[in-house]
Design goal:
Elements lengths: L1 E5 L4 H11 L5 E5 L11 H17 L4 E4 L2 H19 L4 E4 L2 H8 L18 E6 L1 H6 L1 H9 L4 E6 L3 H6 L4 H18 L7 E4 L8 H7 L5 E3 L1 H15 L13 E5 L3 H12 L6 E2 L1
Parallel strand pairs: 1-2, 1-3, 2-9, 3-4, 5-6, 5-7, 7-8, 9-10
Helix pairs in contact: 1-10, 2-3, 4-6, 4-10
């Protein structure tokens, strides 16, 4: 059983890609809707909430947990992997959603520095569009800089975009927001065009077409859910003990710390497919 954690709905875009790429795997999704959004919270509180969610998913029988939340990944992943997991649950694993993005950009493995497929942006410039909390964590430029120190990272916050997506705002409203963020990013670069762009929030794939239209045509827009799904498939091929066990194959569960009825209705509308949440 694989656990997928997000502070709210955004991780469902990742789960969709995972179930398409790995239809025989068993997934339990936990949305901490009762404490969302995480962005305004202090880092220690975000870490504590993320740790509690990982413990809950381990208690549900998950042997591996994916943090399908860029804020949680940026703030809690390394600390969980290095400080907590070795003593608390050494036989289990916690992975993060922004790791495959860093690997794709830099061509360097997260854990051991071994080569991965050719980097996207060579030693040029990449743009990261994300929430204020993820940008302020500095995780993307830090992790990219460790592996590709000559690569320039241009960070662009996208205030109001998550709220607008969750409010199901009209396409014209979303387009205006996205075009504004892209214009601000290009002001930072003084007109220089980045080689690639990262959508560093799991809500943003729902408006990826708007980013693609607003960005210069030469910019490669990375699809985080697909990269995460491919990365997890590769990981499971190399670590088969984390794959679905007898009787688990293909099962799906959805847990929430919020109101299951309300969350189920919203989540179904959010991803365009019926989802039924249970109380965590």
């Amino acid at each position: 059983m694989i656990g997928v954690f997000d502070s709210g709905h955004g991780g469902l875009t990742v789960l969709q890609a995972l179930t398409q790429r790995l239809p025989s795997e068993a997934f339990t999704y936990l949305g901490d809707h009762g404490n969302a959004p995480y962005g305004p919270r202090p880092e220690e509180e975000i870490y504590a909430l993320t740790l509690a969610a990982v413990e809950d998913l381990f208690a549900e029988g998950c042997r591996l947990v994916l943090l399908a939340c860029n804020t949680a990944s940026a703030i809690a992943l390394r600390r969980l992997q290095q400080d907590w997991l070795p003593a608390a649950a050494p036989e289990r694993r916690v992975l993060g959603v922004f790791v495959p993005m860093v690997e794709a950009l830099t061509a360097v493995s997260w854990r051991d520095g071994t080569p991965v497929p050719k980097r996207v942006a060579e030693d040029g410039m990449v743009a990261v569009f994300a929430t204020q909390r993820t940008i302020h964590s500095g995780a993307y430029p830090f992790e990219i800089g460790l592996r590709a120190p000559r690569m320039r990272v241009v960070s662009q916050t996208c205030p109001h975009l998550v709220a607008a997506i969750e409010a199901d705002e009209a396409e014209a409203v979303l387009r205006e927001l996205v075009e504004g963020y892209v214009a601000e990013m290009l002001e930072q670069t003084e007109g220089r065009v980045p080689a690639a762009a990262v959508l560093g929030c799991t809500h943003y794939p729902l408006v990826a077409h708007l980013f693609a239209a607003a960005l210069p045509a030469s910019v490669r827009l990375l699809d985080q859910p697909s990269l995460v799904a491919d990365s997890l498939a590769d990981y499971l091929a190399r670590h088969q003990r984390f794959a679905a066990g007898p009787g688990e194959a293909g099962t799906r569960r959805f847990l929430t710390s919020g109101d299951p009825t309300r969350i189920s209705a919203f989540a179904s509308r959010f991803i365009g497919a019926e989802v039924c949440f249970e109380r965590a």
